[in-house]
Design goal:
7-stranded mixed sheet; Penicillin-binding protein 2a (Domain 2); 5-stranded antiparallel sheet; single chain; alpha+beta
């Protein structure tokens, strides 16, 4: 019998299962690949193209700056720049790449690009390197620097709700004040931690082969926890076990630059600029080992004549962080673009700036360019042609420097000055000097602005300077008076502005009294007003001037020397103060002895460009016309003088009331000065009293002027009693004084009101209305303060008979291809018809100045000069004789001149701060005339060179060669190669 056995169920092989799984997996992969490569091909191709596409910007050359003869004063050369762009391959080791780059730079003597504001000096001290010497700007820059790096976020969380993002102005200011408390050293530590610089010595862990995700995550978490707990200082200490502090800072500089660029998308970070050809070649050979590194070509600005005319040309600098928003809106890359920050470079920034280009490229994972997709060429900026003549400018600068050196024995602080030379019949400025100057190459050529030089320029050691200054000048004021310590910074400050400032244009911004150089103008005013004739003789018998109707006003000649019988010509020759005091007095008397009469001399000065009528200044440009930044000084006039007094705090009466005595008035002390400890009611009462006093003074010279002292004193009593009632300090004084005498509050209020009334009406009102200021103005003193360019413009107006031209430093603007875009032609601003007789009398007097042996240097300079020159010295006081000794200061040495005298073509004004004597500047004028009239002098006297040392030195032996368009390449290349040496020499000279 056959029994049917049940069939055994066949088992599925493990290999079969594996095969099925493999087939399913590969099928999934193939399906996905088909989907990505075919169905979604175009979509992903576009994404890949976008992710690997970069725009490499190309800087545009700035327009050139030429002198009046076509010599190039500022141009550009193409140089190699080393850049770093973060590769898309995150596995690339940033620190390893940077170490290789730093080594290449070091071995080849290249300078590392370093724009990080935190510096470390030779003693290891951290400090902020500000590119400005203005205290307020420094604060703005420091706050912006810290905010850009997120240092405000921690403060905001501590002070306010951690979720808060919108802050009031008061809260923002509170945060800013806290930011300013963070020192440079603390900021450095915070950046060390923020940028995870521990990776230099302890890289972030990566998952090792065979390590589970859990194990790796645990190890990564431990790493992060460790460095989260460590402070920036502790992290730095760990790094310093393998690297020096300066090396650590290099890595931080690049990290910081990358962080700042990240806000703007893809940007390359400059590692080094202006590198040598050989260095560029070495980097090219090693590019495969330097992911993210590239070498590009870009223009840099150079100034072939180094410091020549630096005050006119200006310089370039990175964009101040306080102005970043404004420049970003104008299309600038604030992280890398340079802008003009002074002079023509600044004034014509929009013209000189070129149009940037760029190239759209594809890059691989190492950041290397693989394909160029699109290129937009950059376009140079427009060119600016100046009226400055390089040869005349050189003569002016060198003569100024040599003159200061020559007079050191009599003027030890003659370290600053200015010169302006103008074509009288056009208003074109042919030379303008501000001393000391600087070499603008230092700011545009990478590597030249060393930390030491930056410190000297923007953060000088005032303490060391103070000791040297006091020793050199013999100032008796003491270091704490002359150079007090600033409570906020702990550093000494230059209270009386004695330190020479290279970036302050003394020619266009320095305000100073004209002194006796103003006397020719007073002569014209006196003649035209008919208060004197060209032949009238005054008897200057004892060198002292006074008038019975002006009791107490006793004025003297320089050093009290009498001049005897003096007419206008002699008055100019010997600079008789007596004569011109008398003219000022007569101008006041003859015009009514009233308020309007006080402006008689000012009416003429305004015609000559020395200030403007304050009642018309809203409709009149406060400028000489020059294109660069300038101040604009004012001549004495009633309105401006009154405003100056009103703007001055009433220290005299405030101190007197606090002392309890004023002239013959004695009373219980009453403190009306502002104090934070006062109650709000007391503050308001004090303010009300002082406001009432000021309002009374504002009425002086109007129909509402207060003249009744008694009535005014009565009107003050309620204000005074209000302060008395609210002041605990006054009440305490009453208690104290009551122990010595009986105190009646009403009586005390009456005495105090009488004292204030006497101060307001008998003192300050008289001071405002006195003709004494007009009389002082007649010799160029008093409130008269002008810039050198203003004074030079006045002399030019005088020289051409009363026609005042708008001054210009620019002749024309041209396109890169030479087309004239704008031309600056002579423009008449104002005229005054001066009779030839009057003009000739003044010129005769000025000629005598230069041909009188009593006028020292002026005489030796021009007595035998082939071209007739008229001049006028001006030893202008800056303060009282007592202050001279205390502050170690001397008078301004001012000098004006014009030539040829019969038909002036060129006029000059020069000033030497603390120069002591105006005549010393004549040597500068002579050098300028010799350079300007070079050919004419040799035509008049072919042997002139053998007779004039200055002609040989400043004109014939000038080292400046022509640098015109044809010779540009050779000249600028040579200049670039020698820029560092030239800069060193220039700085030592300055």
């Amino acid at each position: 019998m056959i029994v049917n056995k049940p069939k055994k169920k066949k088992k599925i092989s493990r290999y079969a299962v594996l095969n099925i799984l493999m087939i399913a997996l590969f099928a999934t992969f193939i399906t996905k690949l088909v989907y990505l490569q075919i169905y979604k091909h175009e979509n992903y191709k576009e994404k890949a193209d976008i992710s690997s596409t970069r725009l490499i910007s190309e800087d545009a050359p700035r327009g050139k700056i030429y002198d009046s003869e076509g010599n190039i004063l500022a141009t550009n050369i193409q140089t190699y720049t080393l850049t770093y762009t973060k590769p898309s391959d995150d596995s690339e080791n940033f620190y390893e790449t940077m170490e290789k780059v730093f080594k290449i730079l070091s071995e080849n003597g290249e300078t590392f690009e370093d724009d990080l504001m935190i510096k470390i000096d030779s003693n290891g001290k951290f400090y902020f390197d500000f590119k400005t010497d203005d205290a307020d700007t420094k604060k703005i820059v420091e706050i912006r620097f810290k905010r850009d790096r997120g240092l405000n976020e921690e403060i905001e969380k501590e002070l306010f709700d951690s979720e808060k993002t919108d802050f009031t102005d008061e809260e923002t200011e509170q945060v800013n004040q806290e930011l300013l408390k963070i020192s440079a050293e603390e900021t450095f530590y915070k950046l060390i931690k923020s940028y995870s610089l521990q990776e230099l010595v302890n890289p972030t862990p990566v998952q090792e082969e065979g390590e589970s995700n859990k194990e790796y995550n645990a190890r990564l978490e431990a790493y992060n926890d460790k460095y989260e707990e460590l402070s920036g200082k502790e992290i730095l200490d760990e790094i310093l076990t393998k690297y020096s502090l300066q090396d650590v800072r290099k890595f931080l500089v690049v990290k910081d630059a990358i962080k700042m660029q990240s806000f703007k998308g893809y940007r390359a970070v400059k590692i080094a600029s202006n590198i040598k050809n050989d260095t560029a070649g070495i980097v090219y050979q090693k590019l495969n080992d330097l992911p993210g590194i590239d070498v590009t070509i870009e223009p840099i600005r150079i100034y072939p004549y180094n410091s020549l005319a630096s005050g006119v040309i200006g310089y370039l600098s990175s964009i101040d962080s306080s102005k970043e928003d404004n420049y970003e809106l104008r299309g600038y890359d604030v992280s890398s673009d340079l802008i003009g920050v002074a002079g023509i470079e600044s004034a014509f920034e929009d013209q000189l700036r070129g149009t940037k280009g760029g190239t759209t490229v594809k890059v691989n994972s190492k950041g290397r360019v693989t394909e160029e997709l699109f290129k937009l060429d950059s376009y140079p900026g427009n060119n600016v042609h100046l009226t400055i003549n390089k040869d005349v400018q050189y003569a002016a600068e060198q003569a100024m420097e040599d003159t200061m050196e020559r007079i050191k024995s009599i003027a030890p602080n003659a370290t600053r000055g200015a010169v302006v030379a103008i074509e009288a019949k056009t208003g074109r400025i042919v030379a303008m000097v501000s001393y000391p100057g600087y070499d603008p190459n230092v700011f545009s050529v990478p590597g030249l602005l060393t930390d030491e030089l930056s410190q000297e320029y923007f953060n000088p050691d005032i303490s060391s300077y103070a000791e040297e200054y006091i020793k050199r000048t013999g100032a008796t004021g003491g270091i704490d008076y002359l150079f007090p310590v600033d409570e906020d910074t702990g550093e000494r400050e230059d209270k009386f502005d004695t330190y020479p400032k290279r970036f302050f244009n003394y020619a266009t911004q320095g305000l100073l009294p004209a002194g006796s150089t103003f006397k020719p103008l007073t002569s014209i005013a006196g003649l035209m007003e008919g208060v004197v004739t060209t032949s009238e003789v005054m008897n200057d018998t004892n060198g002292t001037w006074s008038k019975e109707d002006l009791p107490g006003l006793i004025l003297k000649n320089f050093e009290g020397v009498p001049n005897g019988l003096t007419d206008l010509r002699k008055a100019l020759q010997v600079s008789s103060n007596y004569y011109f005091y008398e003219l000022g007095y007569r101008l006041w008397k003859s015009n009514g002895e009233n308020i309007e009469a006080l402006d008689t001399l000012a009416e003429y000065a305004w015609k000559f460009g020395l200030g403007v009528d304050p009642d018309k200044q809203n409709s009149i440009s406060l400028s000489t016309g020059i294109q660069i930044e300038e101040n604009f000084g004012q001549v004495y006039n009633f309105t401006s003088w009154k405003k100056q007094i009103l703007d001055t705090p009433m220290y005299e009466i405030v101190d007197a009331l606090n002392q309890g005595i004023y002239y013959s008035y004695s009373f219980v002390p009453l403190n009306i000065s502002d104090s934070d400890d006062d109650s709000e009611e007391l503050k308001e009462a004090k303010t009300a009293l002082k406001t009432y006093m000021k309002e009374t003074l504002e009425k002086v010279g109007t129909d509402e002027e207060v003249s009744d002292t008694t009535k005014y004193a009565e009107s003050l009593v309620p204000y005074i009693k209000k302060v008395m009632d609210l002041s605990d300090e006054f009440k305490a004084s009453v208690v104290s004084i009551s122990q010595k005498r009986t105190v009646d509050i009403d009586e005390e209020a009456g005495i105090i009101s009488d004292a204030i009334a006497y101060y307001i009406i008998s003192n300050v009102t008289v001071q405002i209305k006195t003709p004494g200021q007009l009389i002082s103005s007649a010799i160029g003193q008093g409130m008269n303060n002008f810039t050198p360019v203003q004074i030079a413009n006045y002399v030019a107006t005088l020289a051409n008979g009363g026609v005042r031209y708008k001054l210009t430093l620019v002749d024309k603007i041209t396109s890169p291809t030479g087309e004239v875009i704008k031309e600056y032609t002579p423009e008449v601003v104002d005229t005054i018809d001066i009779p030839e007789e009057y003009l000739q009398a003044v010129k005769d007097g000025m000629y005598r100045v230069n041909t009188s042996s009593s006028n020292g240097t002026a005489y030796t300079s021009f007595a035998n000069f082939p071209i007739k020159v008229g001049g006028k010295t001006g030893t202008a006081d800056f303060s009282t004789d007592e202050n001279y000794v205390i502050q170690g200061r001397l008078a301004y040495g001012n000098y004006i001149s014009m030539a040829p005298l019969d038909d002036p073509e060129l006029v000059i004004f020069s000033t030497i701060y603390d120069g002591k004597r105006g005549s010393e500047g004549a040597t500068i004028h002579k050098a300028i005339y010799e350079a300007y009239f070079k050919e004419r002098l040799l035509e008049i006297d072919p042997s002139y060179a053998s007779k004039s040392e200055s002609f040989r030195k400043y004109v014939l032996e000038s080292p400046l060669k022509d640098n015109k368009e044809g010779a540009e390449t050779e000249e600028t290349t040579e200049s670039s190669e020698n820029t560092e040496n030239n800069t060193e020499n220039t700085n030592s000279n300055n």
